[in-house]
Amino acid sequence: MLIRIAIVEDDEKEAQLLEGYIHKYGKTSQNLFHIEWFKDALHLLDNYNPVYDIIFMDIEMSHLNGMEAAIKLRKLDDVVTLIFVTNMAKYAVKGYEVDALDFMVKPVRYATFSMKFKKALSKLSSNKDISIMVSRKGGIQRLTSRQIIYIEVTGHKLKYHLNDEIVEGHGSLSDLEKQLQVCNYLRCNACYLINPQYISQVQNYTVTMSNGDELKISRPRKKAFMLQLADLLGEGKNIRL
């Protein structure tokens, strides 16, 4: 399993320390790790793409501190596992406000890191996120189910609506519905397949997504849609009606 990790840390030595710990842990793990280092939170958030599985975030940084960055991050990605790294443990308590999994106090020791990292990987293994290969003119593009806000079918084309772009491809929405069932995607009408993690509101026959798009719920599908949504709410999903 490939795990994508971002380290947001303005101190290069601290970033290298965490990267070294990740590689050390990887020697006894069956996972592969792709690591990116961002020297400040602005570089992470600028044109953010929700492809990361775990983000290690320093709290005390210039320009934009880690806590403020986490608030902005959660508006773009409410799924990624977030772990704070800080010199001051008292600040890390606020991490619960942005659904941080845990925090580590500098200087970080490997024993502490491995314990927290194992916890993060266990959380990932319980999350359902699969790859979607989008057939496009001239080739294919890989998306993850977590990136997609909703999928729209228009004629013979599929449009994958992401946070910052729309990817067009070919295929069957019904086939995608079967493939994404494990990720709890919902069909609100014949044209849309939606990721429930990005639902902001449901009102009458309209579901509003996190990007502001309003999608119609068809009358024949309304009952089944609301029952499925209620089941997800019962599982503690972060969806509000």
Describe this structure in words.
This protein is of the alpha/beta class and 241 residues long. It has 2 domains: 2-126, Rossmann fold; 131-234, LytTr DNA-binding domain (OB fold (Dihydrolipoamide Acetyltransferase, E2P)). It has 7 helices and 15 strands. The chain has helices at residues 12-26, 41-45, 66-76, 89-92, 110-126, 173-179, 219-234; strands at residues 2-8, 32-38, 54-58, 81-86, 102-105, 131-136, 139-144, 150-154, 157-161, 166-170, 186-189, 192-194, 199-203, 206-209, 214-216. A 5-stranded parallel sheet has the order 2-1-3-4-5. Helix 1 (12-26) crosses helix 5. The two termini are 35 Å apart.
Strand-helix topology:
Blueprint: E1 2-8, H1 12-26, E2 32-38, H2 41-45, E3 54-58, H3 66-76, E4 81-86, H4 89-92, E5 102-105, H5 110-126, E6 131-136, E7 139-144, E8 150-154, E9 157-161, E10 166-170, H6 173-179, E11 186-189, E12 192-194, E13 199-203, E14 206-209, E15 214-216, H7 219-234
Parallel strand pairs: 1-2, 1-3, 3-4, 4-5
Antiparallel strand pairs: 6-7, 8-9, 8-12, 9-10, 11-12, 13-14, 14-15
Helix pairs in contact: 1-5
Question: How much helix, percentage-wise, in residues?
Answer: 25-40%
Total strand count, please? 15
Please state the second-level CATH architecture of the largest domain: 3-Layer(aba) Sandwich
Give the overall average pLDDT.
86
CATH superfamily of the largest domain: Response regulator
Termini gap: 35 Å
